[in-house]
Design a protein that fits this description.
Protein name: DUF4440 domain-containing protein
Distance between the termini: 69 Å
Helix content: 10-25%
CATH topology: Nuclear Transport Factor 2, Chain: A
Domain SnoaL-like: 10-138
Number of helices: 3
CATH architecture: Roll
Shape: globular
Order of helices and strands: HHEEHEEEE
CATH class: Alpha Beta
Strand content: 35-45%
Number of domains: 1
Radius of gyration: 18 Å
Length: 152
Amino acid sequence: MTARTDTEQVELANTTFYEVMERSDFESLSGLWLDGDDDGVSCVHPGWPVLSGRGEVLRSYALIMANTEYIQFFLTDVEVSVSSDTALVTCTENILSGGPAEESGELGPLVGQLVVATNVFRRTSEGWKLWSHHGSPVLAETEEEPDDETPA
């Protein structure tokens, strides 16, 4: 089945982005990003500074892939908005990743993380390409007891 509408095409591009990350397929990942010197490509990984330019962004993904034993994304709250040749996708990345391998070669402990993400795509002659990715961690809410004492 082929995506027919812009919204379907952007959803497919967004899903593909996460699928290639799960497979650690750097070549396919590279093909998903805008190509060119003046494209304004940017990326913010949770806890990282802003990365600007295609080369810097792709280097960051190469580093992440080289140092991640296992990663799986469960996307929720996916919203797609298309305006002319630009598309905005917001979603929650429910991430399950494997820690460093144990000495026995087995995958280390699995860790869960919630990240809210904004992915911006631009329409090109080759389809929708990533222009920007911004991921921000969702901080866990703590249930604090209210103070019973009233300040005097």
